[in-house]
Amino acid sequence: MQQVLANCEEKMGKSVAALETDYLALRTGRASAAIFDKVRVDYYGAETPLNQVASVSVPEARLVVIQPWDKSLLSNIEKAIQKADLGLNPSNDGKLLRVNFPPLTQDRRKELAKQAKNLAEASRVAIRNIRRDGMDEIKKLQKAATISEDEQKDGETKLQKMTDSFIAKINDLAAGKEKEIMEI
Predict the structure, then answer these.
(1) What is the DSSP string of 14-40?
(2) pTM reported for the whole predicted model
(3) Where does 48-93 have alpha helices with state H?
(4) Tens-digit pLDDT profile for residues 157-180
(5) Which residues have a Cβ under 8 Å from the Cβ of 49 and sit 6 or more positions away?
(6) Phi and psi of 29, rounded to 5°?
(7) Residue 68: phi, psi to the nearest 5?
């Protein structure tokens, strides 16, 4: 039964980590290099992550500078950023790309906050699905007479407490991200 609980805890941890990664890529009013983590550039026929073909730096609060290691990639990187639908328009000066982050409108902030809530809800659903699968595993162990009924109840209680703690983490992350998005 300890193995079932450990597996559930690991999966729930991965769900929370995935949400954190998704939140890094969610654009707020500030410039962030993490927004470009999902951008893929055509690098000699292979779709390559942007951070593997260029350096991405944030010299100012509303500016990201992307300097490719191979100058011939400038136009490919520019196209990839536009294709990624981030709502950003890079300016190309022949050596590097500058990406200005315009201030967000109130409507866009509300839209991003709604998107953050949807990501959090998807993570909560994933956590609940992991709990359901864990409960099923514990019941199978009890039916196979591997554990007693008391151990089954104890395991289910531990799994529920674990689920509650991970959902609380997701709620904290969601509240923090919403606050970050809505601040002017």
Answers:
(1) HHHHHHHHHHHHS--SS--GGGGTT-E
(2) 0.73
(3) 74-83
(4) 999 999 999 999 999 999 999 988
(5) 37, 39, 40, 41
(6) -70, -20
(7) -70, 150
Burial of residue 37, with CB atoms counted within 10 A of its CB: 0-12 exposed, 13-18 middle, 19 or more buried: middle
Q: What angle do CA 131, 137, 141 make, to 5 degrees?
A: 145
Express each pLDDT in 96-132 by its tens digit. Answer: 899 888 777 888 888 888 999 999 999 999 999 999 9
- Classify residue 149 as exposed, middle or buried by CB count within 10 Å of its CB (0-12, 13-18, 19+): exposed
Sign of the C-alpha dihedral, residues 113, 119, 121, 124?
Answer: negative
Task: Tell which residue, 113, 159, 152, has the closest CA to residue 133.
Answer: 159
8 A C-beta contact, residue 12 and residue 162:
yes
| Cα angle for residues 10, 11, 15 (degrees, 5° grid) | 120
